[in-house]
Amino acid sequence: MSERETLTQTLAVEAFTAMERLGMSLPEAWGRRLFAAGGTLAFHLASKARGTVASNLSRVLGRPPRSQLVQTATREAFRSYARYWHETFLVRSMPTPEFMKRFTFQGVEHLARATEAGRGGILALPHLGNWDAAARWVTGSGFRLTAVAEELQPPRMYRLFERHRRALGMGIIPLSNARKLGAELAALLARNHLLALVSDRDLRGTGVEVEMFGAARKMPAGPALLALATGSPLMPCVPYDMEDGWACQIRAPLEIERTGNMREDVTTLTRALAREFERDISAFPTQWHMFQPAWDDG
């Protein structure tokens, strides 16, 4: 039976395929200019997304959404996201020596220490910079890395994302039944894998309430729960773009004084992670690719 797609879904698949082809085949300078122009065009045409990003950055920057500062930052965020799409495909075709030369990585000792202990590690990251480039560095350096991927619609789109990220060296697990997913992730940690969990957006609406930039919002409880249940370290992961390359910082594992109450401990650890994310987003606000409302009133 053929998979039925809406026109919008089909266009999204075709757009992804075109970006992949262009990102991997065009000379880098041409691709950068083309995608930058696309980001600027999207800023002007996608009014709903523009309003969402401006609302999010208004919180981060502490200025009204229509202020010149926030509007300029919003435009740059669209260009940054376009750069992400260009370079996520570019790094797949880039020779390994060139890629490694252009990537700056800090905190590899935390990855080494985690895997030497044999319990794997959880890399919790926000939608910041180019996380796919960071994944290529991690897997290219000999670590086993698995990411959880949202089950995109249509299924053809999910398969494209899965193929792309496997080409970067990652294993992929779909975000599905929470109980089944937790068991799968725990099993991977027991086999000494690293897990990459994008953790600044609560997709299920059942997360932990945290405060970021002076307002309450929710973050997923999964990373903290998994760390506390398995004993694997929870390490903040900060990818960001540089002028002619990429960078990533892995911080030391977050630690809390455990109370014996799992719910309270998950809340405390998630709030500690939120404070890390707040600092990271403050440092690179226009590289925060949050194109959905980050706060309930956004």
Describe this structure as you would to a colleague.
With 298 residues, the chain is α/β, with parallel strands linked by helices. The chain folds into two domains: 1-93, no CATH class; 95-289, no CATH class. The chain has eleven helices and nine strands. β3 (145-149), α8 (155-167) and β4 (171-174) form a beta-alpha-beta unit.
Question: By helix and strand content, what is the structural category?
Answer: alpha/beta
Q: How many domains is the backbone divided into? A: 2
With helices defined by DSSP (H or I, 4 residues minimum), what is the helix count?
11
Can you give the helix content as a percent range? 40-55%
Strand content: 15-25%
Q: What can be said about the biggest beta sheet?
A: 7 strands, mixed
- Kindly state the number of beta strands: 9
Instruction: Name the average pLDDT.
Output: 95
Unreliable spans are: none
Query: Radius of gyration in whole Å, from Cα?
Result: 19 Å
User: What is the global morphology?
Assistant: globular
Spatial strand arrangement across the major sheet? 1-9-8-2-5-3-4
Helix and strand succession? HHHHHEHEHEHEHEEEHEEH
Question: How far is the first residue's CA from the last residue's CA?
Answer: 40 Å
